[in-house]
Design a protein that fits this description.
With 339 residues, the chain is mainly beta. The protein is built from five helices and 16 strands. The chain has a 14-stranded antiparallel β-barrel. It has a two-stranded antiparallel ribbon with strand order 10-11.
Length: 339
């Protein structure tokens, strides 16, 4: 099993088409799954010890320490959009720990209108996914491998589409040294039914996270490399173009450094072993793509706070996108074994 898995991991990128931006369906699958993840820059899926929300992003993080833990997350997202998820893990004596989650997004209400602007009522749009996951620890190693299976349902006005997808994750964890790293292949799969007879690709991603905890320092830092399936990720943003002395427009220069750093997300968690903790993150791609020319730094900052108690943990996360919009995230995780 170990060698067949390594072969699959090595060749999987060649079987799947790289996708990013607006060229895939079911993009909600790549939204931040919890307040803490959002506060750390949007995509962190390892190093958050026994976090019930992590397996929805990387199934290799499923662990027996999550047994009978229940979590719920809600986000007041951009405009009238809101989304959230519910997660639960249970350890079965003969089979290990299994994981289940439900994710949803509601896009709000939209107006019907004719060509001349006459309004003719409203319609809605929503998407959801059911996730089932399982992880297997490779004997005599510090590695685990995990697999998620997803059933996806999308309703956009009178159009509907369904799909199936999977996540394949690998996790390395060394608790003694406080070193954690994870690699995940997300959202490989296909549509089952389409909106209008055209099969569209799913939002496939390859992401990697490294996390380090220091024994004698009250913080943990994270580095995430996202969208590794597409090395050249940067594109010209017309809002960043300049003019020469003659008034001619000069297009933004995209170099190798732009492509590299737009894969990078940095995060730090202060007091990770205490009851009260603070987290912050910086997303380079968000700064480059959504920020105005003179305000890119502010648009990529995220932060959050959390409180750990014996029976439950609550977290708040804030994600800044640009001057016009931001998002708030609220998460609660409950250890049902304590009740």
């Amino acid at each position: 099993m170990k060698y067949s898995l390594l072969v699959f991991l090595a060749f999987l990128p060649f079987f799947l088409t790289a996708q990013i931006g607006g060229d895939a369906v079911f993009k909600f699958l790549n939204l931040s799954i919890s307040a803490k993840q959002a506060s750390l820059g949007g995509k962190v899926f390892t190093g958050l010890h026994n976090d019930i929300f992590q397996p929805a992003y990387n199934p290799a993080t499923i662990d027996s320490a999550m047994d009978n833990h229940l979590g719920a997350n809600y986000s007041s997202y951009l405009s009238t959009i809101n989304y959230g998820n519910i997660a639960y893990a249970r350890t079965l004596k003969k089979y290990g720990t299994v994981y289940a989650a439900i994710s949803y997004v509601n896009y709000g209400s939209f107006q019907y209108a004719s060509e001349d602007g006459t309004r003719n009522g409203t319609f809605g749009a929503s998407e959801s996914a059911i996730i089932l996951g399982y992880a297997y620890r490779i004997p005599n190693t510090k590695f685990k491998v995990g697999l998620n299976a997803k059933f996806i349902l999308s309703n956009l006005e009178n159009y509907a589409s369904t799909g199936i997808a999977g996540d394949l994750g690998l996790l390395y964890s060394d608790d003694e040294k406080g070193v954690y790293s994870g690699l995940v292949f997300r959202n490989f799969g296909t549509q089952i039914t389409t909106y209008q007879g055209v099969v569209e690709p799913l939002p496939f991603e390859i992401d990697f996270t490294f996390a380090k905890t220091f024994l004698h320092a009250p913080f943990k830092w994270f580095v995430t490399l996202e969208n590794l399936q597409k090395p050249k990720i940067a594109f010209v943003n017309e809002a960043h173009n300049t003019q020469d002395p003659n008034g001619n427009e000069i297009e933004e220069n995209i170099g190798l450094a732009d492509h590299i750093f737009r894969h990078v997300i940095l995060g730090v968690e202060l007091f990770p072993k205490k009851r009260f903790h603070i987290s912050a993150g910086y997303n380079f791609r968000r700064a480059a793509e959504l920020g105005l020319k003179d305000s890119r730094f502010v648009n990529a900052i995220n932060f959050g706070i959390g409180l750990k108690l014996r029976k439950f943990e609550v977290n708040y996360g804030y994600g800044n996108y640009n001057y016009a919009s931001n998002a708030s995230y609220f998460s609660v995780a409950i250890n049902l074994n304590e009740f």
